Amino acid sequence: MESIDQQQFRTLCDQVRELAPSILKGLTSQSEKTDRILWALFERVCTHLGLDPVEQHSTIQGDTGFGLLQTLEEHMNPEFLYSAIMDEDLLMQI
After folding, report:
1. Sign of torsion, CA 53 48 36 76?
2. pTM of this prediction?
3. What span, in angstroms and rounded, lies between the C-alpha atoms of 89 and 41?
4. SS3 readout for 29-80
């Protein structure tokens, strides 16, 4: 089973943050912006892990944020505080 570590996750967050202006183009609602950013990160995490994002999302049966967190819980090695990284490196920037 593939895994993700703190540095790899931070790199994915940085990639999404750099692309945020194009990802968020035309969106005005903060909830839509957050969901779109989380989906972009979820896609990158799944790709890193060799998972299909759509299949992974339907398997977990929750919103995008829950799917991302659940996927990280199942695949991070060693454990790290992904929520702090997401908040500081990504979500506070949008």
Report:
1. positive
2. 0.93
3. 12
4. CHHHHHHHHHHHHHHHHHHHHCCCHHHHHHHHCCCHHHHHHHHHHHHECCCC
What backbone phi and psi angles, to 5 degrees, belong to 63? -75, 175
Structure tokens of 64? 């995008």
Is 1 domain-assigned?
no
Query: What is the rounded CA–CA span in Å between residue 39 and residue 45?
Result: 10
Strand partners, 76: 4
The band of 20, judged by pLDDT with boundaries at 50, 70 and 90, is very high
**Rounded-to-integer distance, Cα 65 and Cα 8, Å:** 18
**45 belongs to a structural domain:** yes
Amino acid at 31: S
Q: How many domains does the chain have?
A: 1
From its phi and psi, is residue 52 left (phi > 0), alpha (psi between -120 and 50) or beta?
A: beta
